[in-house]
Amino acid sequence: MHSLQPVFVPQSVAIVGASSDPDRIGGRLLRFLLEAKYKGAIYPINKSGAVEIQGLPAFASVSDIPGQVDQAVIVVPPPGVASALMESIAKGVKCVVVLTSGFAELGEEGRAAQDKLVAMCREAGVRMLGPNSLGLLNVDTRYFATFSTVLYGLQPRSGSISLATQSGAFGSCAYGMATLRGLGLSKIIATGNEADIDVAECIDYLAEDPQTKVICAALESCRDGQRLRAALLKAAAAGKPVLVMKVGRTELGAAAASTHTGSLAGNDAVFDAVFQECGAYRPESIEEMLDIAYYCTVTGRLPPNNALGIITGSGGIGVLMADHAGDLNLTMPALSPDGVAAAQALLPFAVAANPLDMTAQVTSVPDGISRTTEVMLKHGNYGTVFAYLAHAGLAPDRFSSTIDRLAELRLQYPDKDLVMVMLSAHQSTEKLEAIGIPVFADPTRAMKAMGAAAKMAAQRNHLYAMPTHKLVSTRLSDVGSEQGAKHVLKMAGLPVLSEQVCTTAESASQFATQIGFPVVAKIASPDIQHKTEIGGVLLNLQDAAAVKAGFEILLARAQQHAPHAHIEGVLITPMVKGGVETILGVQVDPTFGPMILFGAGGTSVELFKDVALASAPLTPASARRLMEKVKSTALLRGWRGSPPADEAAVVNALCQLSEFAMAHADQLQSVDINPLLVQQNGAVCLDAVISLKTSH
Amino acid sequence: MHSLQPVFVPQSVAIVGASSDPDRIGGRLLRFLLEAKYKGAIYPINKSGAVEIQGLPAFASVSDIPGQVDQAVIVVPPPGVASALMESIAKGVKCVVVLTSGFAELGEEGRAAQDKLVAMCREAGVRMLGPNSLGLLNVDTRYFATFSTVLYGLQPRSGSISLATQSGAFGSCAYGMATLRGLGLSKIIATGNEADIDVAECIDYLAEDPQTKVICAALESCRDGQRLRAALLKAAAAGKPVLVMKVGRTELGAAAASTHTGSLAGNDAVFDAVFQECGAYRPESIEEMLDIAYYCTVTGRLPPNNALGIITGSGGIGVLMADHAGDLNLTMPALSPDGVAAAQALLPFAVAANPLDMTAQVTSVPDGISRTTEVMLKHGNYGTVFAYLAHAGLAPDRFSSTIDRLAELRLQYPDKDLVMVMLSAHQSTEKLEAIGIPVFADPTRAMKAMGAAAKMAAQRNHLYAMPTHKLVSTRLSDVGSEQGAKHVLKMAGLPVLSEQVCTTAESASQFATQIGFPVVAKIASPDIQHKTEIGGVLLNLQDAAAVKAGFEILLARAQQHAPHAHIEGVLITPMVKGGVETILGVQVDPTFGPMILFGAGGTSVELFKDVALASAPLTPASARRLMEKVKSTALLRGWRGSPPADEAAVVNALCQLSEFAMAHADQLQSVDINPLLVQQNGAVCLDAVISLKTSH
């Protein structure tokens, strides 16, 4: 049994802080439970000693309850929470739901009080939701443990969409929007301060919950990246779409988030990468989240493939939908020759293309719409067929024979999805949904829902593999200088040129002669980060004399511009020409651990943010996918007639870097290899900086 | 009086092809007019000789009508249209609306028949809507001249949004969606084949129509770019928001459009540029178009400025909205110190930031919501204040005192806009709308509507100035070669290096000595377009000997790789080093005339499509705006510590190129200056290609 089962499906509940006033928080909670006709035992607790609250026998303390209690919901003011918790634990509850606020969200003092609650629960083996949670709703078992006033106006419809959210207000908003549009819900839970149970663990539960078909989630932060990854992967393995919102995307948003939660919003691009690798989709709005959830619950799955066939009663709307298909990376293959023949036989005036514009002619063909639909289902290799039918659904009586025919087609072509875009009366919509056909009014929203679902399906072909063992690592040291960093990376298997820090002009020229001219000379100092800015790099030195002279020039410049820097000498390396500059990096994210960064091509990183991230460890295949996300990777592939560069060498370097990052994740803060120069044969790190965590 | 006045506001109408069957096209048209209670005279015409149709006296021909007829609506089958038109003209109608399809949209034969109708109308000075039009709706005068079945289910609500659309189906879709959500409409017109009246002219009419406050439009193509520009500018001058959709954006969409309309979709980026320059916004979906129209009709204007203040009952939703503000280039300035003090006095537990999270505390403060709103209106310099209020609107009774207070605030702060985001019952929404406050359920849609309106307002600070006179031009010739093109551009005032085509090695070395070393030598041949590919360019020739040798090498390479090319000699130019490469171009668009293109920075044009377009003629200010749209323009501004390049020289070159393009628009097809090398002082065209229209 999942450890959150008693949270979502308690057999009995004590409401600690229940009130007789059905509009006060503790009363509202009880009232909603009663109105919902929850079948389990409900025990109102109020230390006032009332013998009856809202018609139920009441108790002064949880310990007074005669029978077994699965869950205690605590709504007493903050000072009373600890003792209520203690009594509940003593009574033997399996879990507590703390709705009371006034803990970690208020500052240090609140955090300390909260930590005490956690410690009590941990010791007793009791799970805790909250504090500062808005509670939960199990629509299936009618267990409504929340005081959200949204229940005054809106009763949930039972269905298969579940929602796990940190913010209760966010949950109320999504709940309200879903309910107003008639979407059916299974479970909704607000985790609040997440002192124990977090959104990740709720996703884990919902992944195995048989009533939940689609999981929606909303995060403001994440405490345990591995737990979130594992939960998302479990949901993906269960074939359940996961739609997860994470606010704080843009600079303005992140600024707002930091005032709001008092914590840094985390690296947003890392969340993006992790969601994608774990097969979850990140909607940009609540409405989009609900659109996709609706789409997938009605079709019952993610789209079978990326290929889309469109039937339309309007050329213009057909083109609009094709525009979106282009944006969404969907394909719109042409009809097969048989399909063209079939379409022309049916609608001689129409152009048998995709989109297939039925023209006004379709109205004069018996069963025209369903027969055109059949042509598309039968002859195109379309996983999904969209039909734009204007306002056909507004006349349910006239449209009902078409629906009957579409129902037959659904059975005949079970591997393909059908979607209707039209204005539709409730009656038509409901019948179509019952046979697995989603109905949208706006063509754009329909396309976007399908595009998102198709993207999720594609991502799930390449899921992240969680590392199964920790890599053995030695302690990193002496990485503060360029040559130290490069040495460590060389040991880790990355391609680094022969180089040496020389302390005299003579030894510099000797080493240069040994490795062959031309060479590069750079000032070597842990105190000088930006060497080029002080003229600390000399390129293309052609002979021993130039190296000797260069040695003196560099020392003089260092003396002039950084008189207090500790100078280790001059670094001599071979001068490498040609090739494509790329950037490789590691960022050890506090939540998600080591992330590997790739970028390519000079100004493109800064100007166009043309970089991408992937979770370590990388496999050669995931390294290649990482490279695919970067547009400038095209520069490696024979750009403007130049010979192709050695992509395999980049893949190899990325994998070695990933292994290095995994082995030293505890010590590392970041690695920057800039550039890794990629040549026709091989690649080489020309510069590298390694930063360790300050505690090391 | 606007020449379309009789189209939109006829006093009397003949329905040619009226039928007694209210479900057939000609009957439906009449039925809708009767049901709408149109006040003008209606004359059903049917050559069957029926004396009465749907209760009205009927006539066999328009000529039989006793009185004056403003408009004839023709719905007879195609063969009868010409004679119906002739009779209508003879009767003295001011305009005809041809709903019959089967003309230019079917091919050449249909086009010829359509051209005859146009000729008849032109000769008689009669305006024509259609053919293949779905008609029009004037909600104000109850003139419903359409057979769209969408009117079976949905009656329009009167309001101030008007819609001009080429595609009738698109119009029906937008009409249906608008009406289902309760938006009020003024006029809707479908222009169909646009044989005479087009969408541009309808926009021109709506710009001066007093009932229309917001203009929506949908184009599939545009015949007269100048007319469209003029109409959009007129609407902007009238302060009316214009929301124009143009399908065929993406490759898939354009492919779909070409099968659908049988015409090229036109250069989509040109439409983008023109819409922006003329102060119109291009929504990506019908729903977005309606959201913005709703926003602007309720607030009665475009946003006063870009600054946004947010009040929220949920931290998470506040961050979500701030995320969108970031995407939409809105600003969210902090509250003033007075504002912070006022907010803290009101809500001691809240962080007085922007977004201002009211927390649950607001419920315990009397008039908490409206008083917080007042703080934002009074103390922030926010043109617009958003309030996220969860589901407050679902309890109209409890919320009504807040609405009363907000109404007072609206009067007190007339220069600022207020927008509510919440779930809301119809009753609350209607009251808020009546006091100028739009209400949205989805926070994202609300933000996007505001962002679009703010963008439109900003664009209207820099509107395109239509050219008032034609530039005097001389005929272009000899532009087929690089040196010919550069010579012409030099004459037009663009910076071009001294250069000369030399026919002997001796003259080449002499010219090189004269202009100074180093030089570049290029093979000069109208038949060799891609010189570098055959090794036809030699850089950095240092002395006379190198030039002489180079001359022979180039001739030999040309002989080898292009034995049949006509070789004019070798072009000698100074070798220029350093500087930032930019691209300048002209594309003479068949619809919109000469467009000026700017791009910068090597691979960025191809890899990131980092180019922008602007309509000629450019002013220095519009040239600078064009440059602002290109991210790589940053490379001109002291990138990575390099000295800033001469932006003014680029502005000047753009303006000269624009003048050249205006003067030769009739002859030119395109100009490509690639690169214009921009140095610290000045800029210079290093290569140029001019293409003329094939007819020249």
SSE blueprint:
The structure is a homodimer of 696-residue chains.
Chain A (H helix, E strand, L loop, with lengths): L4 H4 L3 E5 L8 H11 L5 E5 L6 E2 L2 E2 L13 E4 L3 H14 L3 E4 L9 H17 L2 E3 L5 E4 L4 E3 L4 H4 L3 E9 L2 H13 L3 E7 L8 H10 L5 E6 L5 H13 L4 E5 L4 H11 L6 H10 L8 H14 L8 E5 L2 H13 L9 H10 L9 E2 L10 H12 L4 E5 L7 H17 L4 E5 L4 H9 L4 E2 L2 H17 L22 H10 L8 E3 L2 H11 L3 E6 L12 E5 L2 H18 L7 E6 L5 E10 L3 E8 L3 H5 L2 E5 L4 H9 L18 H17 L4 E11 L4 E3 L2 E5 L4
Parallel strand pairs in A: 1-2, 1-5, 5-6, 6-7, 10-11, 10-12, 12-13, 14-15, 14-16, 16-17, 17-18
Antiparallel strand pairs in A: 3-4, 8-9, 8-11, 19-22, 20-21, 20-22, 23-24, 23-26, 24-25, 26-27, 26-28
Helix pairs in contact in A: 3-4, 7-8, 11-17, 12-17, 13-14, 14-15, 15-16, 19-20, 22-23
Q: Name the biggest interface.
A: A-B, 85 and 85 residues
Helix content of chain A: 25-40%
CATH class of the largest domain in chain A: Alpha Beta
- Number of extended strands of chain A: 28
> What strand line-up does the widest sheet of chain A have?
9-8-11-10-12-13
- Report Rg of chain A: 32 Å
Count of folded domains of chain A: 5
What oligomerization state is this entry in?
A: homodimer
- Give the CATH H-level superfamily of the largest domain in chain A: Succinyl-CoA synthetase domains
CATH architecture descriptor of the largest domain in chain A: 3-Layer(aba) Sandwich
Q: Runs of chain A with pLDDT <50, length 5+?
A: 260-266
Report what the structure shows.
The structure is a homodimer of 696-residue chains. Chain A is 39% helix and 20% strand. Chain A has 696 residues and is an alpha/beta fold. Chain A folds into five domains: 1-133, 3-Layer(aba) Sandwich (Rossmann fold); 148-300, Rossmann fold; 301-443, Succinyl-CoA synthetase domains (Rossmann fold, 3-Layer(aba) Sandwich), CATH 3.40.50; 498-574, Dna Ligase, domain 1, CATH 3.30.1490; 580-692, ATP-grasp fold, B domain (D-amino Acid Aminotransferase, Chain A, domain 1, 2-Layer Sandwich). In chain A, the strands form six sheets. Chain A has a six-stranded mixed β-sheet, with helices on both faces. In chain A, helix 3 links the parallel strand 5 (71-74) and strand 6. In chain A, helix 3 (78-91) runs parallel beside helix 4 (108-124), helix 13 (337-346) packs antiparallel against helix 14 and helix 19 (505-515) packs across helix 20. The longest helix of chain A is centred in the last third of the chain and has 18 residues, at 544-561. Residues 260-266 of chain A have low confidence and may be disordered.
